[in-house]
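>> received
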Amino acid sequence: MDCIFCKITSGQIPTNFVAVSEHAVAFNDISPRQPVHVLVVPKQHFNDVADLNNSSPEILADLMALAMKVAGDTSEGSFRLTFNTGKEAGQSVFHAHAHVTSVQPR
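>> returned
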């Protein structure tokens, strides 16, 4: 598979993780749109959050818990958590992932 997030989660592309859980990893976006811009990605490949929800709600729950931890660790409590699903919605990497963003870094 030629998925960049699969390569990151498997260690093929070295990355400094902000946080790690049983089923997900978090790392800083290489093109941040806010002072805080962290991606939270399941270790297993799912095309988008709808696929993740339908295939593995337990992995989605783990990803959400990790996203909330990242938000608490990196922001002053005001943050945004978004999933882009589909090209028209702005999804550019077709591996499910959440964006944790904030203009108020901790």
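>> The first strand starts at residue 17 and ends at 20.
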